[in-house]
Amino acid sequence: MSADDKRYVIPAPSQPALAIAGSSQLFPVRRIWCVGRNYVEHIREMGQDERQPPFFFAKPADAIVPDGGTVPYPPLTKDMHHEVEMVVALKSGGSNIKPEKARDCIWGYGVGIDLTRRDLQIASREIKRPWEIGKAFDASAPCGPLQPAAKIGHPAKGRIALKVNGTVKQEGDLNQMIWNVPETIWKLSEMVELAAGDIIMTGTPAGVGALVPGDKVECEIDGVGRLTVTIGPPKK
Ligand code: MN
């Protein structure tokens, strides 16, 4: 315990972190940002205007669930959906980062799921209230081990897919993103200052659907990695 820790009136919360593939080291997570509506087919299935620019929302950093983990079925919903997404992890940040400089900020990539209480998200949307209740709940951000860009490069194409109990539900290609990763960092950094430890979920391809307790969810992005989680019963 450092001298500073003694000044806290309660124990300091632990630092959320992501695993690194093939390593015992960890990536500390500062903020989780998510891109809305970044694949045309998903925008169509949600009944939205595909010509709109993407927008951003956030999840709490402690919503991360590691590979092999269990997501307790969350309260208040009857319609929790899976959204498989590529995760971008930043080693540096800034404001107004130009697309041609954005890759310099990236430490690595992983596979994540933007779990969504769809019924609550849509109810919020309809009465013009914020989305948090639908998006930013406990255990809403499963995320697999990161691979460093120094090893895998900067994936701009490749299959992204999600299976539920062995059946493919979502399938797309990273090259179908409307706003690519450098453009996403550029647009987000116009709104907030980005920093080392920030991760960005980059949007989901079509095929989102409901999960129930007992489901085994397996995700894969070619050249990036895998993520498997199980949906558990509600927390008592
Ligand atoms: Mn999403």
SSE order and pairing:
Elements: E1 17-19, E2 26-28, E3 32-36, H1 40-45, E4 55-59, E5 64-65, E6 70-72, E7 80-82, E8 84-90, H2 99-102, E9 106-113, E10 116-117, H3 118-126, H4 132-135, E11 141-142, E12 147-148, H5 149-152, E13 159-164, E14 167-173, H6 181-191, E15 199-201, E16 209-210, E17 216-221, E18 225-232
Parallel strand pairs: 3-15, 5-11, 6-18
Antiparallel strand pairs: 1-2, 3-4, 7-10, 7-16, 8-9, 8-15, 9-12, 13-14, 13-17, 17-18
Could you give a short description of this structure?
This protein has 236 residues and is of the alpha+beta class. The chain is built from six helices and 18 strands. The protein has a single domain, classed as Alpha-Beta Complex (Fumarylacetoacetate hydrolase, domain 2), CATH 3.90.850.
Taking pLDDT < 50 over at least 5 consecutive residues as the criterion, the unreliable ranges are none
CATH topology-level fold name: Fumarylacetoacetate hydrolase, domain 2
Average residue pLDDT:
95
Radius of gyration: 17 Å
Question: What is the count of β-strands?
Answer: 18
CATH architecture: Alpha-Beta Complex
Distance between the termini: 33 Å
Q: Tell me the number of helical segments per DSSP (H or I, 4 or more residues long).
A: 6
User: Helix proportion of residues, in percent?
Assistant: 10-25%
Small molecules held by this entry: manganese (II) ion
Q: How would you describe the shape?
A: globular
CATH class: Alpha Beta
Major pleated sheet: 6 strands, mixed
Read across the widest sheet, the strand sequence of neighbours is 4-3-15-8-9-12
CATH evolutionary superfamily: Fumarylacetoacetase-like, C-terminal domain
Domain count: 1
Q: How much of the sequence is in beta strands? A: 25-35%
Structural class, by secondary structure, is alpha+beta
Following the backbone from N to C, one meets helices and strands in this order, namely EEEHEEEEEHEEHHEEHEEHEEEE
